[in-house]
Amino acid sequence: MVSRKDVVFVFGALFWLYFSYANVFLNGWITFFVKMYNVVVNGILDKIGNVNGLQVDEVSDAYDVLIELVTFFNESMGFRVLVEVTVNICWTLGCTYFGWVYWKIGEYGGTVTNLLAAYLAIHTLYIYGNEAENLEQSRMKLVTKLSQIKIHGLNDVESKKVVCLTQKVINCKLLISPGNFFTLNRSFVLSILSVLMTVLIVMAQFRDSDELNGGNKRIPGDWSGNDEMRTCDCCNSTSLLQ
């Protein structure tokens, strides 16, 4: 016979195995590609030094490849990133709420466990948003560095190449946008946290109001509040019979 404690233990073990997998392997697997794109942009930044026609062509070709890679990542991995973001939002909301419930009933072990799980889910979301934000910031650095190139000392062909490359980097952003549902960055993660805190406050208020209303309700036929009066009536009735 399987006891309730065994079931809780199995689900708890699966729960922590998933979070360990998500935070150790899945984070590294998904963010690996974004980190590689960021390395390419940083390599382009290092290559823009003494500008000449050959280097501008190489940088332009490398940025074209980078645009294609980011687009392919959004199309192929976008659904996976969307699922992971949704799952971590649900874990954060649920674990924080149940951690608060456990704290209300005095189960501090359950409180710590749920809050730790909520922290891991938030940390996962932050890693996704942080890596995507770093890629976009590297692109902005590239725009700044291209804008600082003095094209007056270049010939007409090289000047046009620099201007075209600058316009390309400005217009073709390196955004991680899973399925074009949202743009993944730190601002998106912070907006998720603010919405989750609002939802948790509302849920806590509803729970408190339900507990308050439930405590004030009296069940019909329940005379528990008049136990002392009934005891006195019984004593009086007994004395009269004697």
TrEMBL record:
Keywords: Cell membrane, Membrane, Transmembrane, Transmembrane helix. GO terms for cellular component: plasma membrane. The chain crosses the membrane at residues 7-30, 79-100, 188-206. GO terms for biological process: sensory perception of taste. It comes from the Eukaryota. InterPro entries: 7TM_chemorcpt (IPR013604). The keyword Transmembrane helix applies. It is a multi-pass membrane protein. It is found in: Cell membrane. Its main location: membrane. This is Uncharacterized protein. It comes from Folsomia candida.
